Design the sequence.
């Protein structure tokens, strides 16, 4: 019974195929990162304090992707917030700054968006539409998994030697003659 359809020769060939598949998957993951869009309805928006409002973002992406937020590290979020098609900002603002200064500032924190309307009005009743767009990024787990797989494949490839073959018959007869030659010369 044939378990593997390809005629692989040894662990090195298997390691090369594994290496190629893992790296191709990672490359495709980076190149095909999806854009995620969410329209914020007034019913999703809650007042925080001052000019700040909070909306829960319904961003859901499947593995190997994640939506990075400012919570992951200063200015990690790629989110852009639009009010009637016009981009708001500055992004990555502190929550206290959004409450106190408003005027389009926002912060993407976890699955929530702290923001202020462009004129610091109440976004639930000002009649404007709000849209959040971001690009998902490859989960940090995937490159780590590929690196571990690479390490395992390197270890397996370097420790697995090809089977030792016995020398051809011609070589074994030559070595037998060399052992007999000194005895023939000595006259014994």
Sequence:
């Amino acid at each position: 019974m044939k378990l593997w359809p390809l005629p692989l020769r040894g662990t090195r060939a298997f390691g090369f195929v594994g290496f190629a598949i893992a790296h191709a998957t990672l490359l495709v993951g980076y190149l095909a990162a999806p854009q995620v869009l969410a329209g914020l309805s007034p019913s999703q928006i809650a007042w925080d304090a001052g000019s700040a409002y909070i909306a829960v973002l319904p961003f859901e992406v499947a593995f190997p992707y994640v939506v990075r937020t400012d919570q992951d590290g200063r200015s990690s979020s790629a989110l852009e917030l639009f009010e009637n098609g016009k981009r708001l900002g500055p992004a990555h603002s502190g929550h206290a700054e959004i409450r106190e200064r408003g005027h389009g500032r926002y912060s993407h924190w976890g699955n929530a968006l702290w923001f202020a309307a462009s004129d610091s009005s109440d976004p639930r009743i000002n009649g404007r539409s709000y849209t959040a767009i971001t690009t998902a990024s490859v989960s940090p787990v995937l490159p780590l998994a590929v690196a571990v797989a690479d390490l395992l494949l390197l270890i397996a490839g370097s420790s697995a030697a090809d089977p030792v073959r016995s020398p051809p018959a011609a070589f074994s007869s030559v070595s037998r003659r060399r052992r007999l030659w000194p005895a023939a010369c000595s006259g014994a």
